[in-house]
Each structure stands twice: as C-alpha cells, then as structure tokens.
Design brief:
50% of the residues lie in helices and 15% in strands. With 384 residues, it is α+β, with helices and mostly antiparallel strands. Strands 1, 2, 3, 4, 5, 6, 7 and 10 form an 8-stranded mixed β-sheet that branches. Strands 8-9 form a two-stranded antiparallel sheet. A hairpin with a 3-residue loop joins strand 8 and strand 9. Helix 2 packs across helix 3 and helix 2 packs across helix 4. It is elongated and about 85 Å long. The termini are far apart.
Length: 384
C-alpha cells in the first residue's frame, strides 16, 4: 500500500483511476488474461468472500473513512501482504475497516488495541484456514470415481461446506469467549486479569530431531498430528487450556496446580502406553504469568521450559512453588515423613484418618539453570 495516507482529499476524485466503488467491467482482474486455474481461483475467492473485487486499497480506505496509514496497519496486522494499488478488495474489506475504526472513534478501543484485535484474529484464523485446507479439504477433494478432477470437485464442495463451517466457527468462538470472560471476571483484582498466578507446563517429545531424519515426511506429519491431538484432548478434558503447539512440544496452562499435575501425569501415562509414540517429558511451574494475545510470558514460563529440558524420560518435574501449591491445596503432602507417620498412627488406631493425597513429590538435586539461578526440581508421581 503506497498511496497517500491523508484520507479523502480533492485529488482523490480525479486521479485517472476509477472512482471508489466503481465496478470494473469484464474480468475481475481487469484486462489481464487468466488461465483455467486462475479463473477457478477467482471464482473460489468470490464464493468465499461473497463479493467481487471492487476497490484498490486507497479506494477502500477512503470509502471506510479512514486514513491510508491506518488501513495499511489493519491490513498488515490481519496478516495480509501489501498489494500496491491493485483493485482486489471487496465491500467486506471496507466494512471491516469501518468497524475497527468505528470502535476506535467510539472510544471502545484505542488504536493500538484495535490493531491487536486485528493481529490476534488474523494469526488465529490464518492457522485455522491453513489446517482446514491442508488437512480437511485436501482429503475430501481426492479424485472421485466420477472421473472429476480435484479442481472440479473443489468448488461445489466449498459451496456446500462454507455456511456450515462458518456457523460452527462462530459457535466455537462464542463458547471460547464465554469461558475466557468467566476466567477473567473470577480474578481476585484488576491486576490479576493481566498478570495471573497459573500453573504452566510443557510436554516435549524426546528424540524428535532424530525422528525427523529417520521418518518419511508423511509419517512424521502423522506422528505430530497424533501427538497434538492426544495432548489437546487430554488438556481440555481435565480442565486445562492448550496455549500452543510447536510440533514436538505443547504448552498448556491451568488455574489450579492439581489440574496441571493430573494433566502432566496423564500425558506421560497415555504416551507410554502408545507404542507408536516416542518417550515424553513434562515440566510444570507455578507462579505469576503475563497473558497476551492468547499466549503466556514470564519467568514462570521460562522455568517450566527449563524443567522440561532437564526432566528424565517419561517423568514430570515441577518447581518448588508448584510443590508448595499442591501442599496448600491438599493434593500432595507437605512432608512425606509426616504423611507416613499419620498413616501409621491411623493404622494403629492412635490417630485420625490421614488425608487422601493424589500426588507424591520427591525432591531432586538442586542445580543451576542459565538465567534462573539455582532451582530445586521435584519429581511428581501418583501417590500409592
């Protein structure tokens, strides 16, 4: 986007270009001749976007009533490349610009926040769209017995799927928004809405680099997909949140240390019982975490990553703060010696029934960790 950023001016109306909103005649690409593949791509674009190409970026910005500079910032934040002054935008693009700018003008969002909204939405939906095309649509558009090619099948298939996928996307987004809002309003104070105390864990496949050299690309892709699917299901089922996946590693978080402990051990147990999976190691830390755009940052996250890197195969290592939190909530004994004494007293009839602990903690050797000083890891196990 290279046009002047001053918005609508007198020279906007007479530059030799078509006026804003004028619909080009003939081919949507103008006078450029296109091949069959390009023609189908344009038809698919029109189907998905629900409109023809009408505006250059400058015309779209003018129609939306925003400066070219702000329009370009929104466009890049959503993840789209600069396109110069090609007539490639639609009424939907103008409406999106108008909505974002309207939120700023109404004082509901600052300009920086509006750009963040565009960026977070663009990054999330870009990955979703790539996944659906690469994994979902690709499988459904294999050549059929009818003799139709994949290209010939794609258009009617997208036409059928589009409204259903759109409705489902909105449903899931509303559900996730309701859950996220609930977590925020339950925070103890305003500071906790941004900087919160969470349990943060990493789960990492052992020897993944060696696997990349040994497995075929398709086999490696299937392994990563199986790993991510298993982790996603387990984390969600036990009340955690999957923050992100990094191929051979996943990052998850939970409001409660007991939930995070259960997730970590379940991941180890599930992967150990799957012969197709490599060994796994998990590291979990508890403390203050900064959340931004669905991601988590801070010393607690760094500590969880370091614990994962030093964890033995098929084990869960936690930090001292996590161990203290499990003791505070009654999920693990503060002292194994005291717990053993209480159990013995109960067996002999000289004491009350001891608490029913879910987890056991074993202190490991203290060790220096680059950037974090000396830490004391704890080995997390199921009790009994």
């Amino acid at each position: 986007m290279t046009a002047d950023d001053s918005g609508a001016t007198s020279r906007d109306t007479d530059t030799g270009d078509e006026a804003a909103g004028d619909v080009p005649t003939g081919d949507p690409e103008g006078a450029v001749e296109v091949g069959d593949d390009d023609s189908i791509a344009i038809r698919l674009e029109q189907l998905i976007l629900g409109a023809d190409r009408r505006y250059t970026p400058f015309q779209a910005a003018r129609s939306a009533g925003v400066s070219m500079d702000l329009a370009a910032r929104f466009w890049r934040a959503m993840g789209f490349a600069d396109i110069g002054q090609v007539k490639a935008l639609t009424e939907a693009d103008v409406l999106a610009l108008r909505r974002l700018a309207g939120l700023v003008e109404a004082g509901l969002l600052s300009e920086a926040m509006a750009v963040q909204v565009a960026r977070s939405t663009g990054q999330t939906t870009a990955r979703l769209a790539d996944w659906q095309i690469d994994s979902f649509l690709e499988g459904l558009t294999e050549p059929q017995d009818s003799g139709l090619t994949r290209t010939e099948i794609t258009y009617p298939l997208v036409e059928l799927l589009l409204p259903e996928l759109e409705e489902f996307l909105v449903y899931v987004w509303r559900r996730q928004l309701a859950a996220a809002t609930g977590r925020v309003v339950r925070a103890a104070d305003d500071a906790e809405m941004v900087d919160r105390r969470l349990a943060v864990g990493f789960a990492d496949l052992v020897g993944f680099t060696r696997l990349t050299r040994r497995l075929e690309e398709e086999e490696l892709g299937e392994l990563v997909e199986a790993f991510e699917t298993t982790c996603s299901d387990l984390v969600a089922a036990h009340g955690g949140r999957l923050i992100k996946t990094l191929g051979d590693e996943v990052l998850f978080a939970a409001d409660d240390a007991g939930i995070a402990a259960e997730i970590g051990l379940r991941l180890i147990e599930t992967m150990t019982n799957d012969e197709t999976m490599p060994e796994l190691r998990v590291g979990i830390a508890f403390g203050t975490v900064t959340t931004r755009m669905g991601d988590v940052f801070g010393t607690t996250v760094n500590l969880a990553s370091r614990l994962t890197s030093i964890a033995p195969k098929d084990t869960v290592l936690v930090d001292g703060a996590f161990a203290v939190e499990l003791g505070r909530t009654g999920d693990a004994p503060v002292s194994e010696a005291d717990a053993a004494a209480a159990e013995k007293a109960a067996e002999e009839g000289t004491g009350a029934a001891p608490p029913s602990y879910r987890f056991a903690l074993q202190p490991m050797w203290q060790r220096p960790v680059r950037g974090l000083g000396v830490i004391e890891p704890w080995l997390l196990r199921r009790r009994g």
